[in-house]
Design brief:
6-stranded antiparallel beta sheet; 12 helices; 3-stranded antiparallel beta sheet
């Protein structure tokens, strides 16, 4: 090769190298841009106000792909028979069961009626109120808020430097122990609240009468009323008292720090990214129900009860006794059993330390303890519509979730997981 040819070759090689570098840089930039766009879409949109092709409506929804026909198999007939026996024994119109093993949904089915009058059978895709299991979602929301750098668990709730630092709250507080309360105390049900004077979340009618209100109090008004009371114990102590008002405060903290409503934040930053599209905030009356929501029933001997808004009307207990929507993060969500499984696998295994003392009354580190076989029945935690059973064994983690559309009695069976027999009912003596 002559000197002139060598120079020509080197120049061409440099131009070729620069071209490769340029193409590589453009490719990396395109990949990075696509990745950021995907992240924005997963968190609720592109950020430019325009709709994305990967909107929630265009993503696969779990409830759209499951039904009783596709989930039935012969080996589950004994389990199905036991569930149907359970429903008949306790006069429950309908129920759903979802069973998982580790990170897989292995069985999901609907039983009985979603709405008997219209002959609508219960499908695994129907949604229903999940009551205090809603607290698990709120706990995840707070942990997400911490991850985003918008709150610290050690932050005080009230006072000039607190999260809810409005003077309207600060000036009304009489018991100064309120100023010791932290976000973590609310999560762990150790913020000092008790139900010695009744649960303010379930005493709307009485609160209206006591405070001469003509309409049910909004969250801010209710909080001002509660803050006039003395706490039952020192916040942050070893005492734990189950508290609905504490989880309403957590809902309000989410709203204060994000500028979004509680439901909007949860949908955008917690539920949608996990593929949990079936969760909805419940309404109070039959006319408010969603198209895929069940009808709720009382037992045949149930008597009408005063409506929560002090209207003097008598209503069916499940449609008007309490302001369900106003429960917010303490108990207002609707979901299917499969939805709950999806959420559990996505988040709750990683938030066990904070979520367990919220909706479930058991050891705070129950989920984390995989060194021994454990069994716990959590049936009486939710006063309405929901049975939840969590089983942790040495061999695997299993979850069985049974949700019903009727008031659940105090005496119920449990679900038991054994390595040899799988998930089976453990009946009690009343069967």
């Amino acid at each position: 090769m002559t000197p002139n040819n060598r120079r020509t070759y080197k120049k061409g090689h440099r131009r070729y190298s620069r071209k490769k570098i340029t193409i590589l840089a453009l490719s990396i930039a395109f990949i990075a841009f696509s990745g950021m766009r995907c992240i924005r879409q997963c968190e609720g949109g592109s950020g430019d106000g325009k709709s994305d092709s990967l909107s929630v409506e265009n993503l696969p929804h779990l409830n759209d792909s499951i039904n009783n026909t596709t989930t039935q198999f012969a080996q589950a007939q004994k389990l199905d028979s036991m569930v149907n026996k359970f429903l008949k024994r306790w006069e429950i119109k309908g129920a759903q069961l979802a069973v998982s093993r580790n990170d897989s949904l292995v069985y999901v089915r609907g039983y009985g009626w979603a709405e008997q009058e219209k002959q609508i059978a219960m499908e695994p895709s129907h949604i229903m109120r999940i009551a205090s299991v809603s607290k698990l979602l709120t706990a995840v929301g707070i942990m997400k808020l911490q991850e985003m750098g918008k709150v610290k668990l050690s932050e005080h709730v009230f006072g000039p430097t607190g999260v809810l630092n409005d003077s309207a709250y600060t000036n009304i507080i009489k018991d100064k122990r309120h100023f010791d309360m932290t976000v973590e105390d609310l999560l762990r049900h150790r913020a000092g609240f008790t139900r010695a004077e009744g649960d303010p979340m379930f005493a709307t009618r009485y609160i209206m009468m006591q405070n001469r209100l003509t309409t049910p109090p909004d969250h801010e008004t209710l909080l001002k009323i509660v803050l006039k009371r003395r706490l039952g114990y020192q916040p942050g102590s070893d005492t734990h008292k189950y508290s609905n008002i504490g989880y309403l405060l957590l809902s309000m903290i989410i709203e204060k720090r994000t500028g979004l409503s509680y439901a909007e934040f949860m949908q955008k930053h917690v539920l949608n990214p996990a593929g949990c599209f079936g969760f909805k905030i419940a309404g109070n009356y039959y006319k408010d129900k969603y198209s895929n929501e069940v009808k709720y029933y009382m037992h045949k001997d149930a008597e009408p009860i005063d409506e929560f808004n002090n209207s003097k009307r008598q209503v069916v207990k499940c449609y008007g006794e309490n302001d369900v929507t106003a429960l917010s993060g303490a108990g207002a969500w609707c979901a299917s059993a499969a939805d709950f499984f999806n959420l559990f696998i996505s988040y709750l295994l990683f938030f066990c330390t904070y979520s367990m003392p919220t909706a479930f009354i058991c050891a705070p580190n129950f989920f984390c303890n995989s060194s021994r076989n454990s069994l716990v029945s959590l049936a009486n935690i939710c006063p309405f519509q929901v049975l939840v059973f969590i089983i942790n064994t040495q061999h695997c983690f299993s979850l069985a979730y049974l949700s019903t559309n009727a008031l659940v009695p105090d005496s119920v069976p449990v679900l038991l997981h054994t390595p040899s027999a799988g998930v089976v009912f453990q009946p009690n003596e009343k069967w």
